[in-house]
Amino acid sequence: MGCGSALPTRHHNPSSQIIDIRGKLFMIDCGEGTQTQIRRSRINFSKLYAVFITHLHGDHVLGLIGMISTFGLQGRTAPLHVYAPVAYEQLLQMQLDMFCSTLGYEVIFHPVNTSLQQVIYEDRSLTVETVPLHHRMPCSGFIFREKPGQRHIKPEMLDFYNIPRSQIDNLRMGMDWTSPEGEVIPNSRLTTDPDPVRAYAYCSDTRYMPTLKDKLQGVTTLYHEATYCEDMKDKAVKYLHSTAREAAMTAREAKVKKLIIGHFSQRYIDETPLLKEAQAVFENTVLADENKEFEV
């Protein structure tokens, strides 16, 4: 929804992304203009289950109260869960009391300890885990990890061994089959491995962290801020941001499969220098862009 940095430009909105996991939607950050971008994307507002806020800089959170208000005007009834640093709870409540006192649904706040790496959300198919980052204020990235799926049935083997269809769930969970004659048929002969587990990590805003690679083990696709090129590293150090090269170093060290870079400084009308700098270190790097979709 937005991949710019602090100042909105004609091309980039402030930070926001939507993660679609089998039709269930989760938002990371909610900068100004996010709800307009959602309309342009033709995403169904009602399917948004939760919002995860990394930190309390305006370009990551100022669009949230407007979106909450819009949900109320549209007649939302399902609760909206907000995961954010502890300090945001009081401000959010003040905004709700001032602008959204007649909402027809509940906004449920979940305080996030940005200093810990821990699972803060879990359902049958997914966990969301925090990742402490190094920024000018308490900040946390998030890892969305898919849980292992079930094994895949080989239909021809069911027919060959005359296995009742009632046993399919047991086979998917890895159990062997014992025939009426007492023969044990190993599960590996009847099924194939489940699909590979996917994981998506969002790391913005942060200075380069040599230890971050250890926290990103098993991540398939990494989104990492790349606010500046190396020729402006002094600003990256001053404002606790990362260069494109440093984002690529993190991707390489963490052994992810794909790197998406974003949070571009308004100084870059063309982000090609950022892309080339990152690709020189980690080849499978792509640029984030508004309304662009990526398959994890």
Structural features:
296 residues, alpha/beta, seven-stranded mixed sheet, five-stranded mixed sheet
The level of helicity is 25-40%
Rg over CA atoms: 22 Å
Characterize the biggest β-sheet: 7 strands, mixed
The counted number of beta strands is 16
Structure description:
This protein has helices at residues 34-41, 64-73, 88-99, 155-161, 168-172, 187-190, 212-215, 233-239, 244-254, 272-279, and strands at 17-21, 24-28, 48-52, 80-85, 107-112, 119-122, 126-132, 140-146, 152-153, 177-178, 184-185, 191-192, 199-203, 221-225, 258-262, 285-287. With 296 residues, the chain is α/β, with parallel strands linked by helices. The chain has a seven-stranded mixed sheet with strand order 6-7-8-13-14-15-16, covered by helices on one side. α9 packs parallel to α10. The chain is globular and about 75 Å long. The protein starts with 16 loop residues before the first strand and ends in a 9-residue tail after the last strand. The mean pLDDT is 93.
